[in-house]
Amino acid sequence: MNGSNNAENVVLGIVREYLAKKPFFSIKDIVEFVNNRVRHNLDINRNKIELVIKSLIKNRIIIAGAKLMKQDILHQFTRNEIYKFIMQNPGKNINEIMKTHNLGSNLALWHLSVLEKFQFIRSKKIRNRCIFFKFDSDPKFDELHYYLANDIVQSIINLMKNERSLKITQIADGLKKNHNTIKKYLEALTDLKIVEIEKEKSRNLYRLNKERYLKAVNLMGRG
């Protein structure tokens, strides 16, 4: 191990001890604390300590106001389960997370906020819903993940796979869903170019663009 890595590990260990006692900190205070602990270590000076602390904050390894450090976050069982669920099911909202893990809203929000603060996940508002994704996933696929993970959307797509084109009433009746609900999702799928509109006299007919749909699914898998 080289000298630089050793210094970082020493500082990190002392920072962990500091945060266990005092999560709210200023850079000046924590540098002073670490410096006092390593004053006999000739390889670590105040300037080096400050650079390490700033790097830890920049990389979200430590966060002011949180006793936890990044490597501790997934040690908590429920939080780790939520994280794995989001990794496997991008585009889920808090209600789905609460239901899956049998959690109340306060506890679910706490775990999600910790995961987001330390950049394990990110959130995005889609149609007034807060949706969660892996932090480094590609945002351009967010709406695809959100809509294609929806059960009603999947029912619409499955129904349209075997038909050339359908009216909204045919889809709504076939799925036994409200007309306005189907219309809302068809508009979203049209915006995503997964569904196309054909005109028949004064009526709109909806057709699944199978090529575009399969391409979207493949792209999401890589996104």
Task: Explain this structure.
There is one protein chain. It is built from 11 helices and 5 strands. By secondary structure, the protein is mainly alpha-helical. It has 3 domains: 65 residues; 65 residues, Arc Repressor Mutant, subunit A (Orthogonal Bundle); 78 residues, Winged helix-like DNA-binding domain superfamily/Winged helix DNA-binding domain (Arc Repressor Mutant, subunit A). The strands form 2 sheets. The protein has a 3-stranded antiparallel sheet with strand order 1-3-2, with helices on both faces. Helix 1 packs across helix 2, helix 1 packs across helix 3 and helix 9 crosses helix 10. The longest helix is centred in the first third of the chain and has 19 residues. The two termini are 36 Å apart.
Could you outline the blueprint of secondary structure elements for this entry?
Layout: H1 3-21, H2 27-37, H3 46-58, H4 77-88, E1 92-93, H5 94-101, H6 105-117, E2 121-126, E3 129-134, H7 142-148, H8 151-161, H9 168-175, H10 179-191, E4 195-200, E5 203-208, H11 210-222
Antiparallel strand pairs: 1-3, 2-3, 4-5
Helix pairs in contact: 1-2, 1-3, 2-3, 9-10
Descriptive key words:
single chain, Arc Repressor Mutant, subunit A, mainly alpha, elongated, 223 residues, 12% strand, 3-stranded antiparallel sheet, 3 domains, two-stranded antiparallel sheet, 57% helix
The CATH topology of the largest domain is given as Arc Repressor Mutant, subunit A
Taken together, the total number of domains comes to 3
Helix content: 55-70%
* CATH level-two architecture of the largest domain: Orthogonal Bundle
Identify the overall geometry: elongated
CATH superfamily annotation of the largest domain: Winged helix-like DNA-binding domain superfamily/Winged helix DNA-binding domain
Kindly report the spatial arrangement of strands forming the biggest sheet. 1-3-2
Number of helices: 11
Straight-line distance between termini: 36 Å
Mean pLDDT rating: 88
| Rg from Cα | 25 Å
The major beta sheet can be summarized as:
3 strands, antiparallel
Poorly predicted tracts of residues: none
The top-level CATH class of the largest domain is Mainly Alpha
Total E-strand runs: 5
Structural class: mainly alpha
Strand content: 5-15%
Order of helices and strands: HHHHEHHEEHHHHEEH
